[in-house]
Amino acid sequence: MQTVVRKGPLWIVLWLLAACKTHGQANQKPNIFFIAVDDMGNNDIGYNNPEVETPNLNNLGNNGVILESNYVYPVCSPSRSAFMTGRYAHKTGFQHGTVEHNQPAYIDSSYKTVAEKLTQSYGYAAHMVGKWHLGYCKDSVTPTYRGFDSFYGFYGGQENYYTYKVARYNDFRDNLTAVTPKNPNYPREDVDGYSTFEYVKRAVEIVKNHDKAQPLFLYLAFQAPHSPLQAPQELIDKYPGSWTYTDTDGSQKTTDRGTFYAMVTAVDMAVGTLHQELENQGLLDNAIIVFTSDNGGQPKEGGFNNPYRGAKGTFYEGGVRVPGFVYSKSLLTKTSYRHRGLLHASDWLPTFVSLAGGSADLTSDNDLTSIDGVDQTQMLLNGGDSARSKIVLNIDDFERSSTIYGVIKQYGPEVWKYVQGNIGRRGIVYSVTKTSKKRALKRSFKSERPKRAVNDKYLYLISADSSETYNLYGDTTPEIQDIQNDLEDEVEAEKPKAVPPMNPYNCGTPNNLLNGFWSAGPGEGWCNCIA
């Protein structure tokens, strides 16, 4: 049918079409793709280290925004709880460590998950593929009961990449809310193939079958490159068999970094496959892709955190400052740069809510009034300043031997870090940064050489000393003393806000094994077991 618009000059037609397209996009909720990897250190991605082949990740990161100050927790479960709830781990009981297979810990129902918010308040379809690691002692705490329309993956912290088993038992399932009940224990024994590639196959299926009239949230949580070190042989052959590194005690050790990097390359291939399918289905035109690791790399397994000190399991930068980026074809007004603004795992929930159309003033949302995350859309989309100037690293005094308090805070252009307690083993200090950082510190303060540690207290100017070579706690410079006192006050103010760790003791395997599968249970399941 001929229209009046077609009779006008061509430039008017094009202008009207462009205006309609822009207006339509502005009123659509974006598709959100959150991709998490496991145990990837700062130098385990190609745009930071050309030794590892990650062309797809490099392309997305270099054409998006690379996050230089992307903070998480030093191990898996606390980071995942922060992302899922928008709250610090010490507010939800996940501050003490990872959730083991026979540990009755979970996200309490009083905390809305990011999937629940997006599906219930903003009309999203939500699917999860990969690693959960947030507890499964009863059906109602598993992904399809916490907002996800489907879950394809495993509940625990790791498993064999080919057999999908851990400790001889199976932990792989295919849960669909379309089935009644929501089959949280529906096992899959017919899965065949390397798990990284199996996960992306399911992700591609979800994308192909998705109704484009509805916004999509896909959480793709790869196990890789977490141990066990396993990868297709053709990828392992791309790399040397081992590397030598300096361990925390100063000794020289070798690690199978070749297999580790092969696992990273497999993730890169999987992300490339998903990216291409999103392009094919037209889902990238109004979408954002977020990529992050859940904690730092483990050198003994092949991880490489240079120039950051420490490793997974420590509160040095190498344990908590990880690779990450955001990419979008249409939503970013500034691209192809690195942003140094502070960002925390808890920020993703309010940021996604804001992208979905939620109020930037999250205090108006009853579900979000007590969250710790902040809306980072201005930082991510427009290159603005970070919406936060402080990150609480952790508040955990459950066990005296592992007590840890920590905070990072920005003062103008300087970023300082204070930790009290068990920061972790001494940590690798990469020699490539020692000289320059020492000069930077002397230029800043001209202070006397500081003591190594004072009563397990540590103070680092991480904006100049990202290798955390020089502990400035106890320095007599008035400016440093003022900062030290302020950070100690921040920690003291945060301590009363911590809740006890969520069921930190293990129950024993008989409670959660059913016909050879790690299993939840109806009702209260085995959540009330006695350790």
From TrEMBL:
Question: By which gene is this protein encoded?
Answer: LOC111127587
Q: Which organism is it from?
A: Crassostrea virginica (Eastern oyster)
- Which InterPro entries does the entry mention? Alkaline_phosphatase_core_sf, ARSB, Sulfatase_CS, Sulfatase_N
Q: Name one GO molecular function term.
A: sulfuric ester hydrolase activity
Record key words, sorted? Calcium, Glycoprotein, Hydrolase, Metal-binding, Signal
Q: PROSITE patterns given for it?
A: PROKAR_LIPOPROTEIN, SULFATASE_1
Q: What is this protein called?
A: Arylsulfatase B-like isoform X1
Tell me where the signal peptide lies: 1-24
Any keyword Zinc-finger? no
**PANTHER family given in the database record:** ARYLSULFATASE, ARYLSULFATASE B
Q: Where are its TM segments located?
A: none
Which ranges carry the Sulfatase N-terminal domain?
A: 30-357
| Reported cofactor(s) | Ca(2+)
Which family is this sequence assigned to? Belongs to the sulfatase family.
